[in-house]
Amino acid sequence: MNPLVLLLVSFFSLILLRVNIGFALILASITVVLYEDLPLISVINQMYANVDSFPLLAVPFFMFLGRILNTGGITDRLLRVADVTVGHVRGGLGHVNVFVSMVFASLSGSAAADTASVGSILIPAMKKAGYDPAFAVALTAASSTLGVIIPPSIILIIYGAFGNVSIGALFLGGVVPGVLIGLFMMTYTYILALKHGYPPNAKANLRDVAIALMIGAPPLLIPVMVLGGVVAGIFTPTEAAISAVIWALFLSFIAYREIPFRELPGMLAKSAVDFSVPLFTVAGAGIFGWLISYLGAADIVVNFIMSVTQNPFGIMLMLVGFLLLVGTVLNPISAVLIFLPIIQALGNTAGINPVHLGVLTTITLSVGLISPPYGICLLIASQIGEVPIMNAIKAILPIVGLVILVAILSLWVPDIVIGLPKQFMPAIFGL
User: Fold this and answer.
1) Integer Cα distance of 421 and 369 in angstroms
2) pTM of the full predicted structure?
3) How do the domains of the chain map onto residue ranges?
4) What span, in angstroms and rounded, lies between the C-alpha atoms of 22 and 20?
5) What pLDDT does 429 receive?
6) What is the pLDDT of residues 123-136, one digit of tens each?
7) Which DSSP string do the residues of 222-273 spell out, in sequence order?
8) Do the beta carbons of residue 166 and residue 425 sit within 8 Å?
9) How far is residue 114's CA from residue 107's CA, in Å, rounded to a whole number?
10) Mean pLDDT of all residues in 260-287
């Protein structure tokens, strides 16, 4: 049997048997290593090389940051800011849902954390206000994927660390398409609100607006600190994550006093456990990705696509289709780590800028978070809203179409992605 076929068949067979993805990557890789009579020490070397990355340290700190934000009452303050900002527009709670997800994305970088924290508050509120429960679930799940795109995005950190791409430039590149997706979702919400008579919230007076902005300002310093610090070269992504955690700890434990100090050890322990699973996946993807390259998968895929089309736009459209398919069965981190050699080979063939390619990959893979069978954000939201998953899938399809539309627009008009990085980090582009 062809070793590449053996590798892929073994991996996906294990996934279908519900084996943990980290174990599936390692077991499939060891099978091929033994089949090809390669030295077993290669498995250890490649796994270690993949986790021996300083930028990767930013991930557990951002995961810990998300836990602080959820526990420390910061989410409630952000909801208040969102309410006074966009709540008075027709379909107010829907706009608040999207807006707070956009802001929360710039704080924690985690889509699942956004779904759980924002959804537990807004889905019941939207149902009570007369919104269709399936729509409330779909909008919450879809807007939470902005945490994958708007910086600080954990996926962009992973892509930059292992793809040798500037993480600061990737962060800047994710801003415009992330905001654009949010605006498209709000437009869709407004149209449905007009159609179904979803109400606006009461318009806040100037005093309420001032109070909400005042209490929301301290948490909103976090994205300024992270994005500004990384782009200006003051922080590395890891140092920016640590600084954000320190500020969030100060707010939650000292300024707001909503978390007792005795809970800190437990929060640290849970965050360590939360990170251990993706870290194990990163290690497994090290040997799996190395075998993908060693067995020439990138060349095979490139040659196949080149036999279909040699148009750069056509090549990238096929890559988008491939990533949409992959995203339905793998989480974005695993997909990036496993298929990065293929993604970058196709990007080089199409002549696309590495920053543009990284953000486009992230946008496309974010769809997998709300698409079955993986669709973790959609599953979380449907459980919170007590909505059958098939109803939620039907409601989310138009929103998925909007995300894919932004991906294609970003491909067609590169400046949607690379405009800001060119402006603030011209050296990356040789300008």
Assistant:
1) 26
2) 0.85
3) 3-429
4) 6
5) 78
6) 888 888 889 999 99
7) HHIIIIIHHHTTSS-HHHHHHHHHHHHHIIIIIIS--S-GGGHHHHHHHHHH
8) yes
9) 10
10) 82
φ and ψ at residue 393, rounded to 5 degrees: -65, -45
Whether pLDDT at 42 is above 90:
no
Residue 191, phi then psi, degrees to nearest 5: -65, -45
Mean pLDDT of 128-155: 88
| Token pair 């040659």: residue | 303
Q: Which of 95, 87, 175, 88 is nearest to 425 (CA)?
A: 175
Once rounded to an integer, what is the mean pLDDT over residues 368-394?
Answer: 85
Measured in degrees and rounded to the nearest 5, phi and psi for residue 38 equal -85, 155
Q: Specify whether the CB–CB gap between 119 and 94 falls below 8 A.
A: no
Instruction: Pick the closest to residue 173 from 351, 348, 424 (CA basis).
Output: 424
pLDDT of residue 364: 95
Q: What pLDDT, on the 0 to 100 scale, is given for residue 105?
A: 65
Helices (H) and strands (E) in the chain, counts: 22, 0
Cis peptide before 219 (omega within 30 of 0): no
CB 185 within 8 A of CB 139: yes
Nearest Cα to 24, choosing from 286, 281, 322, 273? 281
Give the residue carrying structure tokens 């050699």.
341
By CB atoms closer than 10 A (0-12, 13-18, 19+), residue 4 is middle
**pLDDT of res. 374:** 64
Are the C-beta atoms of 28 and 288 separated by less than 8 Å?
Answer: yes
Q: How many residues does the chain have?
A: 431
Residue 152 to residues 60, 217, 361: CA-CA distances in angstroms? Answer: 13, 18, 16
What is the phi/psi pair of residue 305, to 5°? -65, -35
Count of C-beta atoms within a 10 Å radius of residue 191: 13
Tokens describing residue 293: 């390259």
